[in-house]
Amino acid sequence: MTDRNFAREAAEKRVKELKGYYSHIAIFVIVNGMLLLLKLGVLTSFLPEAFPKESYYYDWINGNILIWGVILLVHTLLILRHKLSFFKNWEKRQIQKYMDEGKDHVDKYK
To answer: Domain total for the chain?
Structure first.
């Protein structure tokens, strides 16, 4: 496999990941937006007559938004894992800095 093919496959995989992430965000906003409107009573006129309309019946929606929000946050961190290389680079720079300081310290006493 050539480097060009490898780069293309990696790019296609990245685009597929981003597409899935954007779909996740869209579904999160649509579903939880509808549930929130239902809880606030905006959509109660569209519910069947026998369906409960009391607001306390929809208290589970808060938990749903919270749990799904945490899952979306984890998905965001997975998507941004390439951008979070700052910490790796910082660690390498610090190691190099202290190695250079140690070398200067040793050279001073030669």
So the answer is: 1
